[in-house]
Specification:
This protein is an alpha/beta fold. It has 11 helices and 14 strands. It has 3 domains: about 230 residues, Rossmann fold (3-Layer(aba) Sandwich), CATH 3.40.50; about 55 residues, no CATH class; about 30 residues, no CATH class.
Length: about 325
Amino acid sequence: MSKLDILYDRVKKILEQEEKTPFTVSIMGQTGVGKSSLINALFGTKLDVSATSPGTEKIEEIYITGSLGHKLLFYDIPGIGSSKRADEKYLAEYEQKLIESDVILWAILCDSRSFSYDLDALDILFASITKLSRTEILSKMIFVLTKVDILIPPPWILAKTGEMGVFVPQADTVSLLKEKEEFVQRNFILPYKDSLISQTYFKETFKIDDEKFEYENNEIRYKGVLTWEELESLKKRFPSNQETLERLYDNYRVVPCSSRFQFNLDLLTRLIITKLGTGAIARFSNLYTDKNLYTIPLSEAKNLSNIVVVDRSEKKVVFDLASTEI
């Protein structure tokens, strides 16, 4: 065998090994924000969920298999905030997991009026890590606002199609979610935007004469973080490139989700796969196109109503969605 054949064989084995290596995603955040519930809803796992005690008390590993047999490894990491002693114990384990992770989800309870605790927790996390910079960690992160179904009134809309339904927020809730998204992005991400890079693939003809944009093969890089206002401005200037520009914005957007209503789970899955890079798109595209991520059987959706109207004088139920035909 020639030296060239030996080299070719060695490179081939390395590439085959890389193909078998799973992409790794970690999910972090305070205790009680719904991290385990989110993983269960995204991937049909059955992690323990408790209303009174921390469900994750050690780092759990969950393997997900894609349509082509490729694996996605999830680290479900104990919540920060259960106690100072526990935080110190867990922080010692976080660094290695964050080094190994291709994507990090940071879950924040959407109904909180103050995100100062999460900012403090991130500062503690950044200070404890020696082998990764804050920029490197942020470039891997997706911030997720959890449990958006608790934002009422106004009530959510259940859009019916046949025997399935999709939960949709009303206009006031949409505006509130946008405010919360922008607040978290402004305080958690934008202070470091000059040192961050946004990137995605593009298929169409793409040419923007701007020093912030770089092109290589079918990938585009943007120096910085696109805000919503910048995105809308670019979309007006370059209407044929709207989808690519939206994916660049998605690099550092904040995603509001509901595990209970299965709201935005498809969007979050798409963002995870986009952040993992072009290699993950073919391997896991079946995950974010799965209708089970955002549709709910009406028979189940009806049971999610938390209001029953009772006529006390007649001693009977006037209205209960669970027993109503829809």
